[in-house]
Structure formats: structure tokens, C-alpha cells
Amino acid sequence: MTTEIRPAAVEVHDVHKWYGAHRVLDGVDLTVQPGEVTVILGPSGSGKSTLLRVINHLEKPEIGYVSLNGELIGVRRHGERLKELSERAILAQRSRIGFVFQNFNLFPHLTVLDNVAAAPVATGLLRKPEALELARTLLGRVGLADKSGAYPRQLSGGQQQRVAIARALALRPGVILFDEPTSALDPELVGEVLAVIKDLARSGTTLIIVTHEIGFAREVADRIVFVDGGRVVEEGPPADILDRPQHQRTREFLSKVL
Ligand code: ADP
Ligand code: MG
């Protein structure tokens, strides 16, 4: 029997990040395997968005590194200088990470179809006709085939977020990061966005999702990571973290959101 050893999709190793004297990430370790769905829970200000931004190389850690599929994208570890990647290499790796934001961040002057097709063309992944074809397929997948000619302002928040998910998929990312993807939505629009994310989870896409939707987390997560004060307090399968939390801080947080 041969055992295939695959590198982790994402590995965050001992990441420290601070702004001035304010320590926002205080030694975070996180390993996400290909196809795994990780939900990050934690109070406001605990460093969840910063962690996603470090993974996406929008922020550089002061200490620690991040690797994607075994390729290092971080910089330093305990003062030791690791080889810095070129801007080009960083951009290449970032293009393999999808990022879905709370506020959709669609291009307002582009149609829905062009929003989805733009990045694969800009990064040279596809020519325009192929990108448009892919965009049509992806809009079908998020249930918006009939909206391709619309502009973002003509869509509901839930529809805009589904376009943002299709846009993230267009780069065929190795992992998609979601930062509170339903927090800006009216309650009646949350379900349609969660349904699309659930569909991605079931299809084996590697996902890291920051959310306060506990019921959704329970359903979709392979693993829940509870973060507080810039540290991972505890992690494990949803049933362990949600029903049998080991730490007082986790219990306090859950008692507020459940
Ligand atoms: P969360 O997403 O868990 O709410 P964040 O990662 O956004 O937390 O922020 C963690 C802490 O870092 C907060 O106290 C926030 O004010 C601070 N912070 C985040 N970004 C910056 C920044 N660019 N400059 C200074 N402080 C920041
Ligand atoms: Mg945040």
C-alpha cells in the first residue's frame, strides 16, 4: 500500500502580529488539510480578521510564517530571517486564495458577469471568452444565471454575496477565506448565502470561515477553532467545542451567542 503524503492546504506557524504596542496575534498555529472546512469563532477584536489577512498575505507577521501547499509565504521566525518571496511570487500565491468579505466588495461599474470574469483575465489564467464561459457556469452554481447582465446595485445583499463567492471561485483557489460573510445581510437573506457555502463545503473545497452563525458552524465545520486575545484557546470537532467546551472563555462566548 502506498500512502500519499499531501502538504497541508494552509499552515500557520507561531504567528505573532502587532500594531504598535498592541499585540493582535500572539502565537497562532493552525493547520488546514485539503478539503477541510474550518470555522473560526471568537469575540469581536480577538484577531480573527487579522489572521485571515495574514493567511492571505495582506499583513506580514512580525514572527511566524504561513505556508500554502507546503510553499512558505511568511517571512521570519524568532528573529531568524527566512528567504523573502518576491512580490511576484506573493501575488501568484495570493491569486490561489479566495477571499469573501463581509461587505461583498464587488466592482460597482462592472456587470455581474464581468465581476466574476475579471480576475482570471487580469491574472492571465484565462482568455476573455473562456473566462466568460467559466463565469456563466459559476453564476449558475450560485443560482444567479439570470443576473449576469445586472449591476451590483441592482441586486440584494444576499445576491451580491453569492456573486462574490462565484468571483472567488473563478480563480480556482486552493482555499477560500470567508470573513463574516453574512454579517452585513438582512436576516432573511442569510440562508441563501449559507446554502451556497454549504454546497462548496460538500464539494470538497477547502474553506476557512469566520462566522457567528453557530448552527451553520455545527453543520458545516470539520473543525471549530475558538480564538480569544489573539490566541487559539481550543479547537476540535463541532460537538466538542460547542457542547463540551473545555475553557471558561469558550463557555462565556457561547453563552452569549447561542
Ligand atoms: P476580529 O476580526 O476578531 O474582530 P481584528 O483582527 O479585526 O479582530 O482586530 C483585532 C484587534 O486588532 C482589534 O483590537 C483591532 O482594533 C486591532 N487592529 C486591527 N487592524 C488594525 C490596524 N490596521 N491597525 C491597528 N489596529 C488594528
Ligand atoms: Mg473581524
UniProtKB/TrEMBL annotation:
Membrane topology: Peripheral membrane protein
Gene Ontology terms, MF aspect: ABC-type amino acid transporter activity; ATP binding; ATP hydrolysis activity
Residues annotated as domain ABC transporter: 10-254
GO CC terms, sorted: plasma membrane
Gene3D superfamilies: P-loop containing nucleotide triphosphate hydrolases
Superkingdom of origin organism: Bacteria
InterPro entries in UniProt: AAA+_ATPase, ABC_ATPase_HisP-typ, ABC_transporter-like_ATP-bd, ABC_transporter-like_CS, MetN_ABC_transporter-like, P-loop_NTPase
Localization in the cell: Cell membrane
Main subcellular location of this protein, as a coarse class: membrane
Pfam families named among the record's database cross-references: ABC_tran
Assigned keywords, A-Z: Amino-acid transport, ATP-binding, Cell membrane, Membrane, Nucleotide-binding, Transport
PANTHER family associated with the record: AMINO ACID IMPORT ATP-BINDING PROTEIN (PTHR43166), GLUTAMATE_ASPARTATE IMPORT ATP-BINDING PROTEIN GLTL (PTHR43166:SF9)
Family assignment from sequence similarity: Belongs to the ABC transporter superfamily.
The protein's name: Amino acid ABC transporter ATP-binding protein
Native source organism of the sequence: Actinacidiphila oryziradicis
